[in-house]
């Protein structure tokens, strides 16, 4: 498994547009509105993401197969640089699910971000019904926060909050 930037593969925009069209990705992640999910929209998003990365706003990386295919995404953002914290998000393309890729990708990104970006906490939000996401977070070293210790601002109503600190 390799984590790399969006735009390094010839089919990245098509793969991103296909992920945005997937119902589970739509339920679990923030995706553009239905009329902004075409391949050229994805291409524009990839170009814009370089600027968001340079500005320290977000860091979304492709989880690639050994052959360079897009198998999913792991990302951090928004960042709270004062608290040295960030929010984790992730998806796996439908045909690549069930192979441990999301768990391994999240673990790799978090280990790297603690070591190289100086973060002291990474948070994740998920719905009660998203068992897959919860299992991925457990396997990536996260624990669920009890409601009274949840950080401000409050997460989306009813969502679970998970956190991981550097080891
Ligand atoms: C959730 C999601 C990322 C899982 O990706 P994946 O690459 O298949 O996950 P992994 O293979 O790394 O699975 C890790 C663990 O989660 C379990 N798991 C994965 N999907 C599951 C599901 N739908 N229900 C229950 N457990 C699930 C796996 O079985 C594995 O546990 P195990 O080792 O005990 O068997 C994928 O289904 C997805 O892209 N969903 C839509 C986007 C989303 O919800 N993202 C999370 C936002 S917070």
The CATH top-level class label:
Alpha Beta
- Summarize model confidence as the mean pLDDT: 95
Structural class by SSE content: alpha+beta
How many domains? The number is 1
What CATH architecture would you give?
A: 3-Layer(aba) Sandwich
Report the radius of gyration as a whole number of Å.
Answer: 15 Å
State the total count of DSSP E strands: 7
Largest sheet: 7 strands, mixed
Bound molecules: coenzyme A
- List the secondary-structure elements in sequence, H or E: EHHHEEEHEHEE
Q: What percentage of the residues does DSSP assign to strands (E)?
A: 25-35%
Q: In CATH terms, what is the fold-level topology?
A: Aminopeptidase
Helix share of residues? 25-40%
* CATH homologous superfamily placement: Gcn5-related N-acetyltransferase (GNAT)
How would you write the strand order of the largest sheet? 1-2-3-4-5-7-6
What do these coordinates show?
It is a single chain. The protein is an alpha+beta fold and 167 residues long. The chain has one domain: 3-Layer(aba) Sandwich (Aminopeptidase). It has five helices and seven strands. The chain has helices spanning 12-20, 23-28, 39-54, 101-116, 131-139; strands at residues 2-5, 59-64, 70-80, 85-92, 121-126, 143-144, 160-164. Strands 1-2-3-4-5-7-6 form a seven-stranded mixed β-sheet, with helices on both faces. Strand 2 (59-64) and strand 3 form a beta hairpin. Helix 1 crosses helix 3 and helix 4 crosses helix 5 (131-139). The chain is globular, with a radius of gyration of 15 Å. It binds coenzyme A (COA). Residues 24-25, 28-29, 89-92, 97-103, 124, 126, 130-133, 135-136, 139 line the site of coenzyme A (COA).
